[in-house]
Amino acid sequence: MNTKEINVLVLAYLGDTIYEDYIRKYLIKKGIANVNDLQKSAVKYVSAKGQAEFLQRLIDMQIFSDDEINIIKRARNYKTTSHPKNCDILTYKHATGLEALIGYLELEQRRDRIDMIMKIILEG
């Protein structure tokens, strides 16, 4: 399977679940024991706005390889007209770029790289 040719929305679909799993585990390990409080705390990380901001911070840090940047750009530039009503299309596309990258890294069996990216996001 050539992971670079997989539809970026499929990569984002996978990346979304992995990303959210990291966030949920992180918040539980922080000691948040109430489900409503977990949900409120998670929004900062899992919202399109939050993901887009994290992606931009990571780009500014210049931590991505050329292959990773290509996946992000493919996802960001993917033609779509639908997006959630609570954010603009550009924010949504940037968030999709982060999710697609994580999905790509998972399929490439680069969990070490996902760990590094998530560490930066969570320690932000």
Short description:
The protein has 124 residues and is an all-alpha fold.
Structure description:
The structure is a single chain. This protein is mostly helical and 124 residues long. The chain has a single domain, classed as Ribonuclease III domain (Ribonuclease iii, N-terminal Endonuclease Domain, Chain A, Orthogonal Bundle). The chain is built from 6 helices and no strands. The chain has helices at residues 8-29, 35-46, 48-60, 66-76, 89-107, 111-123. Helix 1 (8-29) crosses helix 5, helix 3 (48-60) crosses helix 5 and helix 4 (66-76) packs across helix 5. The mean pLDDT is 93.
Walk me through the topology:
Blueprint (H helix, E strand, L loop, with lengths): L7 H22 L5 H12 L1 H13 L5 H11 L12 H19 L3 H13 L1
What attributes characterize this protein structure?
73% helix, globular, mainly alpha, 124 residues, Ribonuclease iii, N-terminal Endonuclease Domain, Chain A
- Helix and strand pattern: HHHHHH
Total of domains: 1
The rounded distance between the terminal residues' Cα atoms is 34 Å
Tell me, rounded to a whole number, the average pLDDT.
93
What name does the CATH topology carry? Answer: Ribonuclease iii, N-terminal Endonuclease Domain, Chain A
